[in-house]
Structures are given as structure tokens and as C-alpha cells.
Amino acid sequence: MKRYFYNLPTLPEQQKIATFLGLVDRRLAVARRRGALLEIRKNILIREVFEPSATWSNIKLSDISLIRKGKGISKSDIVNNGSLPCIRYGELYTTYGEVIDEVFSSTNIPGSQLILSEGNEVLIPASGETAIDIATAACVIRKGIALGSDMNIIKTEIDGRFLAYQLSGPLKLELAKLAQSVSVMHIYGKQLEELMIRVPNEST
């Protein structure tokens, strides 16, 4: 049998390290619980804010928006410290919430070959594994962000953040109902155009 020699910290040092990491774990657990509670409170507030009111009107999304598709950015096109920040459709339900003010991916594909944000667009995945997965919306705040393929891009006259919160909140089930499937769920721009949303009247 071979003998191996290792440099190990003393037992007291090991115990200090374990205690410190245990403290970090406990703080992370508290932060996760606080995050979950804040998410619950946010959802309650969203429901209250968008509660039907006589001072709000129901309108078709097509009345205040133009919808188009993004343009191809594959996973292999994502690079560290690329020249152009970008968003891929899968990140809409894995990485971002309703408002995108910081973008984490980038590519070196020239911007002239892609669709770039103008600011205030609302993004909805065009495909996914389940209807609920793709029933999500996010408003991209910044200009000049490359918007990848397989996503619906809604350029709207109203505040994109307001629309994203409404689509991902009280209208989430209505959005999910639009999804069609053979093997993969899809939401198409023509379907989104018919979606009824609620907006405050000008006097409110």
C-alpha cells in the first residue's frame, strides 16, 4: 500500500473553518427566506395594484404595441467580455425578473446583424418546455442590447415595466393559455396581439 502525505490544518483550525462556513450557510438560508417572503409580498402587491377598477380600460395589446421577433444568438455565440451585451430567450425564465436593467451575457456578433433594443421593450419567450415557463415577461430598460431569436419583442407606447409586471402577474395564466404545442410550447406574435390588457384612463 502506498503512503501519501498531506498538509492539513490542525484540528482547531479545521473547526474554525467549519464554524465560519456554517455561519455563512445560516446567513444564506436567512437571505433565501427573506427573498421568498419579499417575493410573496411583491405578488400580493401586484394583484392589488392590477385589481379591476372602473377607472381602468381593457384594450388589445395590438392597440398600443408592435410585436416582432428577435434574431439569432446561439449558446456558442456567448463569450466573456464580448463587445455587445445580449439576451437569449432562455434567460428570460432562468436569469431575469420583470425588469432587466443589468445584462449578464455578451457576444462578438456585429450589431448590424442583430436586433438591438431601443429601450422599454417587453420580451416574452417564443418557446419553452411548458406553458407556464414561457408565460413570463421582462422589460429591457437599456438601449443597444442584442435580442436573440425565439423571443417576442413588444415595442409599446406605455411603460414597459408596467406591462411586464401585468403580463407576468395577473395575466400570467391568460398568457399561458396562448401557448400551443406539438412537442415544444410556442407563443406567437399574432396571438399576443389579441391579448387584452388593462391600462389606467388618462384622467387617473
Automatic annotation (TrEMBL):
Pfam families, alphabetized: Methylase_S
GO MF terms held by the record: endonuclease activity
Matches recorded under InterPro entries: Restrct_endonuc_typeI_TRD, Restrct_endonuc_typeI_TRD_sf, Type-I_RS_S_subunit
The Type I restriction modification DNA specificity domain, residue ranges: 55-201
Gene3D superfamilies found in the cross-reference section: Bipartite methylase S protein (1.10.287.1120), DNA methylase specificity domains (3.90.220.20)
Keyword line: DNA-binding, Endonuclease, Hydrolase, Nuclease, Restriction system
Family label: Belongs to the type-I restriction system S methylase family.
The protein, known as: Restriction endonuclease S subunit
